[in-house]
Write a structure and sequence with these properties.
The protein is of the alpha/beta class. The chain is built from 21 helices and 22 strands.
């Protein structure tokens, strides 16, 4: 086989994210693999008569972005047309939310309808859905409205009946159905297992492999548009794994996929029972570990904190008790049992955590899991996901254990003012998603957008990490927790690759690594941070040297 490159990129800066050689002028690709990186003269000397030379025309080339904590399956099922998108980024007011839902119900008479994305803190005039209000909109067919966080859902009577939810239905582990004084479900569900049970009532036959794969192809395309070449599925249901694998291994797939399976007590007791045969990693797909939800979301008050939620109209609308400190999804002992079991079985863990009290329980669980063999836990690179209220001391403790952290940085971009003015106060907002503290503690940090809880866009997370600026107000929350541009770019390339144990394959531009590439309008490093989002954008994406978006 000839060693002549199929394609050479030149004519603009090449940001390799490789500390040993951070800058280059050209890059060559053959058979999906990088074959040369370096000076333009040297790389161009390798070209043959069939080599496609791509002139970047001053644009910048860098590794394709890695969405460290995504939900591509939910994105496809909840947002792909004809889904009903009522997120605050799409539908800013409560009046528009209900107008959109009513129109969707009218357009599908007698059919189940699901609407995704309400946010009682950003859609200020939104009346919280109730079983009665949803019955009025759709008296006969199932109607379910899901919160933007994904941690709460609201269904009408028909949805409850379709889901088989009654007073006798037990709460799933780590989740609950809200009940009235007589024990009857009110239509409100909290946390993943309960939310999924209610969502299934509006699936309307769309959970077969054919429909799921179609939704995933749409979702993968949305990731490619923003420069993403690898996405982590952070809530994989075992029944979805065949469709997820098939979509990722399709010859025209736009992204690589690594999945974390929902870690339930049932899987802890029998880990291979429901996804045996799908765990072996291949180039385009692999199961990376197990996902736990230690707590929920600040927007519903379901995180355990040492500081109280404020007592005001906003917290009352969100259903919080006065001066609440929130709660966890599991007791510390239950969490420890799960961590110990999965670690002993060889599964790396990723644990959703926000509250600083919850973090203590998670770190204790990791310590117990490491008791017999600290090296095994460190080799797993167990993760802490989101990390809203994690303190500098907790980051240091996590680093000593060998745990690693992934930050939902755009919490500050979209909800910074909510954290400061409504939920906790400016001091907590200033240390929310404390990226500088994490890096200074020794962590290789990744940034993420959490699937559809904020618009999927790695460059948005980078911009927030370097400015800590909230929109639309423009206020800065916690300037001391800013990252440099280089640190933030590593947090969407090389460092999430390391977290996924893929550091030898993706995340940097070195010979022998996969040619996963993103082309940007300009070199982002010298751009004024306050102009970053205006001046830096993705113009093309390549997966294994194959263009997936332009």
């Amino acid at each position: 086989m000839s060693d002549t490159p199929e394609r050479i990129f030149t004519g603009g800066p090449v940001l390799t994210m490789d500390p040993a050689a951070p800058d280059a002028e050209a890059l060559a690709v053959r058979d999906g693999v990088i074959t040369a990186v370096g000076a333009a003269r040297d790389v161009l000397a390798l070209r043959g008569p069939g080599t496609d030379v791509v002139d970047l025309e001053g644009q910048a080339l860098m590794p394709g972005f890695i969405e460290a904590h995504g939900h591509p399956t939910l994105m496809g099922l909840a947002l792909a047309p004809p889904a009903v998108d009522v997120r605050p980024f799409t539908v800013p007011t409560g009046r528009e939310v209900y107008d959109t839902i009513r129109a969707a119900v009218a357009a599908a008479p007698g059919r189940p309808v699901g609407a995704y994305g309400i946010d009682l803190l950003l859609q200020r005039d939104l009346a919280p859905p109730t079983r009665a209000s949803l019955d009025e909109i759709s008296p006969h067919a199932p109607l379910v409205v899901i919160s933007n966080s994904g941690h709460a859902a609201y269904g009408n009577t028909a949805a409850l009946h379709a889901a088989g939810l009654t007073a006798a239905t037990p709460d799933p582990p780590g989740a609950r159905f809200v009940r009235d004084a007589h024990g009857e479900p009110t239509g409100e569900a909290h946390e993943s297992a309960a939310v999924i049970a209610l969502m299934n009532s509006v699936a309307d036959g769309r959970l077969d492999d054919h429909h799921v794969q179609a939704a995933l192809r749409w979702s993968f395309g949305r990731h490619a548009r923003v420069g993403i070449t690898t996405v982590t599925e952070m809530a994989a249901e075992p029944r979805m794994l065949p469709a997820l694998r098939a979509a990722a291994e399709h010859p025209d797939a736009d992204v690589r996929v690594r999945a974390y399976v929902m870690g339930t007590p049932e899987h802890a007791a029998d880990p291979g029972r429901r996804f045996a045969g799908h765990a072996r990693a291949r180039e385009m797909f692999g199961v990376s570990g197990m996902k736990l939800w230690a707590d929920g979301t600040p927007w519903q008050g379901s995180i355990a904190t040492s500081f109280p939620f404020r007592d005001n109209d906003a917290t009352a609308r969100a259903g919080l008790a006065p001066c609440s400190h929130g709660s966890m999804n599991y007791s510390p002992d239950e969490l420890t049992d799960l961590a110990v079991a999965f670690t002993a079985q060889g599964f790396p863990l990723a644990c959703h955590v926000h509250g600083d009290v919850t973090v203590e329980a998670v770190l204790h669980a990791y310590e117990k899991a490491a008791a017999d063999d600290p090296g095994r836990l460190r080799a797993h690179r167990p993760r802490l996901e989101h990390c809203g209220a994690v303190t500098a001391g907790q980051y240091r403790r996590a680093a000593r254990l060998g745990a690693t952290v992934s930050l939902f940085m755009d919490h500050v971009r979209w909800w910074g003012d909510v954290l400061a003015d409504d939920l906790f106060g400016p001091d907590v907002a200033a240390r929310w998603m404390a990226a500088r503290s994490a890096v200074d503690a020794g962590h290789r940090v990744s940034l993420h957008n959490d699937g559809i809880c904020s618009p999927t866009d790695p460059l948005s997370g980078v911009a927030t990490a370097i400015t800590r600026r909230c929109r639309p107000s423009g206020r800065v929350h916690g300037p001391d927790e800013r990252l440099t541009v280089e640190e933030a770019l590593r947090a969407v390339t090389a460092d999430p690759a390391w977290q996924l144990h893929l550091e030898n394959d993706i995340g940097m531009l070195r010979p022998g690594m996969r040619a996963d590439l993103a082309v940007l309008t300009t070199d982002p490093r010298p751009v004024n941070p306050d102009r970053f989002q205006q001046e830096v954008a993705v113009t093309a994406t390549y997966l294994g040297g194959r263009q997936t978006w332009s």
